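Tutorial, part two.
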Amino acid sequence: MTKPLPLDPATLRETTVALRMERDAIHLYDGLAKMERDPHRAEAFRTIAADERRHADVWEGRLREAGVAIPPPGGPGPRMRFILVVARLLGTKAVADLVRTLEGNDEQRYARGAPLAPSAGMTATLATMAADERRHAEVWRPPQEEPKGDEAAATALDAERRGRVAASAAEITKVENWHRGGAGTLRAIVFGASDGLVSNLSLVMGVAGATSEPSFILLSGIAGLLAGAFSMAAGEYISVRSQVEVLERQIALERAELAAIPEEEFEELVAIYRSKGLPEADARRFAEHIFQDPEVALQTMVREELGLDQNGMSSPWAAAGGSFLAFCVGAVIPVIPYLFGSGDVVLFISFGASLVALFTLGALVSLLTGRSLLFSGMRQVGLGAAAAIVTFFVGRLIGVSVGG
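Running the prediction step on this input gives:
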């Protein structure tokens, strides 16, 4: 009888997490395949689900070899349930950012290796699994983000090096972009709503501490909602507009430099790629490929030399409108109960409803950060409740002193 291969606690923990992660991915892609109307995308999702089953089999086999009981399969975790609900309501493309981020996290876990790969054989397996996760993320790349210019050249250069068994996470992410934007839209909505909820809850509680007159509390809440929403929108508009203007100015300067001194700009790009570890010959071939198209050369120099991303800029008006609406959604929650009544009961309802909303927002934050849903939710509740309670007692002190 073969003796079980022991696993140290760290490796056992990481292996169990990897198994749960793969099982979640199976649920996700099986669900997406069932709701996807495009037959080609549905087939791609089924193929990915098959890959994830193969990955799960690897981790089950490792636990079995170590003599560890394999956890029974369960339903999808909260994060996957949320993604599936959004996909069912808005379509599978609406969750592209979230899924690409998850795939990027999975790929980095496997590319990092230790403590998942204490043996050379397991290192090779992890390299294959990391490559699978990279390929899965590409399914979610929008058409306008297809590799071009320097990304296409990087892909071609990578193809020449496929003989290598594994690559570091830093090498992999040079030509990937799922970590740049992440779930940008969801992030803006969640944090905008959180700002509105915490600030207006604190305002309502502070006024409620100073006076029991419901009309004052309601008026203050509505005023806080409108003032905060317009302030957020104006600030977001100015911020994004300024970023766009800076970007446009830098692009204009870089365009002028490319027209006046193209040879020096070419050598700068070669130096940049050499600093990233490319050999001289590869760096020059890479740069020559890019400089064949002036617009691609311009975009590349702006990104590589200046650290600016033209594709990462959003519309100032869209940013302002999104911030306004998100703030309103959060800020209206502590106000709503005062539309229907007054007194201590309404105060407690307002406070309780706001805490529930804070927990929900914290849970949504966990989708972006990867932290525990319970931890993120309770952290949001704790911070929001602390701010509200402090302002309530400050309002109570001010109300007492004013009232004599």
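Residues 214-260 form the longest helix (47 residues). In part three we will examine how such features are distributed along the chain.
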